Amino acid sequence: MKNLALLLAFALIFASPMLGQKKGTPISLGNIWLTYDYYPAAPQGFKFMNDDRYYSAIEKGVGIVKYSVETGEKVETVVAIPGISSDFSYEFSGDEKAYFSKSNIEPIYRHSTRESVSASYLDGKNGAALAEGLLVSNATFCPTDNNKIAFVYENNVVLREVSPMKITQVTQGGNAGKIIHGMPDWVYEEEFGFADALKWSPSGKYLAFYTTDESRVKMWNMPLYPGENYTMSYDFKYPKAGEDNSIVSISIYNVETGKTVTADVGTETDQYIPRIKWNQDGSQLAVMRLNRLQNQLDVLMVDPETGSSQTILTEKSETYIAEATDDKWHFLKSGEGFLWLSEESGYKHIYHYDMSGKKIGAITSGEWEVEKLLGVDEDSETVYYTSTEVSPLERHLYKVKLNGKGKKQLTTEAGTHSITASPNMTYFMDTYSN
Prior knowledge:
Low-confidence stretches: 1-20
């Protein structure tokens, strides 16, 4: 945390809300929402790098560039792409020795896309398009072997080894409007806010994925207005209130044996699986299970070899349980339990549980809410989060010890602070509005 202030100073330079405005341009809906003239200027494609000391970003006409966090100065060009544009999309592998480049991006729903994806390697190894001339979704590197890549093509999960080339179709039977593997349906994407329905285990041994059967969901017609004279008809599966939802299951594929098991999430099919996540060492897959009334949320721990599960935590509410988000849980690398966001006190706070589901204690408390659990520096046993403690109209960054002591506010400028943390919680990028 010693360099926090330095990064914040750097971050605030490009966080001014009027930096992107074109002088003399009249305010209109067009330059607000189409050309984004009033958006703050910021590094395009900003990503913290693994060692926390550097970040990468896109420099137009140059490529993917590495910068020092402490000075903001350019260190080197990681990938030279002379014709690169500011809307170029890239993603590094876990070891940062390979990257995806994406083009021909087509939106599906709010978060999901399909695109042309190519894998390239910084060590000179020959890269390749994942599916030459075809559009894929949810491409993701194996965390321990950047030669292995999982993706979704035509509603099926595919595993691609780049060199030598080997393609394994993990699932069968994917069919638009009926069976979707490795992607969410409209409801999950819209209401639970995610599209990445593929999760590698930390060791790369297992690949967990969603399977959605939307066969019984009724079609909905929505007119689109692409031009001035005629509408277009867009049909998609849309369950209205009280109608049939999709039936969702979770499968786990063993990359070494080629065996797939189905996670036991109970016999009820009219329910939701809003999130899945591997525990710290990949020995178990954690599954959130939410009833349709959305007033009971269970955490199940699943054996990836057998699919058997054990419920370790159940949270109930007389009204409803707030939306399950990615930061609702955090498994400690030490194996000493997990952190859990809950509104059990009437306010959203962070709680510490052991791996059996026994509550160790509350880490935060008070008549205010934790907005986001950012992460944990386990060496110093420090938790970082943003909250409304100053005011419901503001969001600030805090740190506190795992035992709930030593709380300290880290941002001081009045307003709403949106925080992006580096992998080891050493630096934070702060974009704020006042």
